Automatic annotation (TrEMBL):
Gene3D superfamilies: 3.40.630.30. Residues 166-296 form the BioF2-like acetyltransferase domain. This is BioF2-like acetyltransferase domain-containing protein. It comes from Halogranum salarium B-1. Pfam families: Acetyltransf_6. PANTHER family: LIPID II:GLYCINE GLYCYLTRANSFERASE.
Length: 349
């Protein structure tokens, strides 16, 4: 029996969340509340798709449709939360044999592509698959390019003393020095979420960098997602906030979502802040700390000192010839502009 695709609507949101709870590899943005909040702030149209084998759900993927320059684009996730993979995710295989598992997954991807062609007809599709989707052949067979990217996972199950001992020497020293300097860490509330995001936004602006994360969006995620799915951790010294992290979490994984920027004081507060997040998550039974990204060289040095493991995930892209032509033309134009600017700068000198 082939896989059929159903587009879920608001009346079936409870069913969708039930699948999200059952399928491995999901994160809080897979939940209906998260999907709708992202849709509200991204301006995209949400297509929550479920694949069924008869009456049995075998996979799901939320897709976001939007238009740009007269072309229809599909992304999962949208740029607003581009650091979080949104699918697809598959039902646990249970006792299913490898051949049937692969057939279900292949037919699901085939069916999703057929649904897209018939209902959306996009010129470009970008899907960020999570680490649980290590086999991307089914997408490649449907014309997708698969590009590997990386994140860091830290195992939180060891004894706290052993976990701390696995850190680099400077990380251990920073944790100790921050404690001795009087830095304290507490879990905050919605107000603290806003404070942390505003500080991160301010830091980006100081560096002439854009920051796409609106404060109200993160605050609404805190309010709309289940209690505890979004948490704020605040590091303070002498009564002033010197750093903060906003995390996301499931039963198994906590994500270092936003923040971790040092705002003031001389003590190395961020190392202590991360260490507190790890311990608190471990106490709640969470087994993994996802440091959310291991692709920017300048950030990997900090994250790697906690001795995490690099884990691969894939960006999957598919485009028609017109989109490729326009993309290539834009790249050529950008290159010419840069070349002329460089030449003009040399002449002016």
């Amino acid at each position: 029996m082939s896989i059929s695709i159903s587009r879920i609507d608001e009346s079936e949101s409870t069913t969708w969340n039930d699948y999200v709870d059952r399928f491995p590899g999901t994160n809080p943005f897979h939940r209906w509340e998260g999907l709708q909040t992202v849709a509200d702030y991204s301006g995209c149209r949400l297509h929550p798709l479920v694949g069924y084998n008869g009456n049995q759900p075998v996979a799901l993927v939320p897709l976001y449709e939007h238009s740009a320059r007269g072309r229809t684009l599909v992304r999962s996730p949208p740029r607003l939360v581009e650091s979080f993979p949104l699918g697809p995710v598959f039902a646990p295989p249970g006792g299913m044999k490898r051949r049937k598992t692969e057939r279900n997954r292949t037919e699901f991807v085939d069916a999703v592509q057929t649904w897209l062609d018939e209902h959306v007809d996009p010129s470009y599709v970008h899907i960020r698959a999570g680490p649980v989707v290590s086999d991307v052949r089914t997408f490649q067979w449907n014309g997708y390019d698969a590009t590997p990217f990386y994140t860091y996972f830290l195992d939180l199950t060891p004894d706290p003393d052993d976990l701390l001992a696995s850190f680099s020497r400077d990380a251990r020293t920073n944790v100790r020095d921050a404690e001795e300097a009087g830095v304290t860490v507490r879990e905050g509330d919605k107000t603290d979420v806003k404070r942390i995001i505003r500080q991160v936004e301010r830091r980006h602006h100081e560096q002439d960098e854009s920051y796409p994360m609106p404060v109200p969006f993160v605050a609404d995620c805190y309010s709309r997602l289940p209690e505890g799915a979004v948490r704020a951790y605040v590091a303070e010294m002498d009564g002033e906030m010197v750093s903060g992290i906003v995390t996301l979490e499931t039963e198994d994984v906590i994500y270092r979502w936003q923040g971790g920027v040092k705002y003031g004081g001389d003590a190395p507060a961020t190392d202590l802040l991360d260490w507190h997040v790890m311990q608190a998550a471990r106490d709640r039974g969470i087994e993994q700390y996802d440091l959310v990204g291991a692709n920017m060289r300048r950030l990997c040095g900090y994250k790697a000192k906690f001795s995490p493991e690099p884990v691969v995930y894939y960006n999957l892209t598919r485009h028609d010839r017109l989109h490729q032509f326009l993309t290539d033309a834009q790249s050529l134009a950008d290159g010419l502009v840069h070349g002329f600017e460089t030449l003009r700068h040399r002449v002016d000198r």
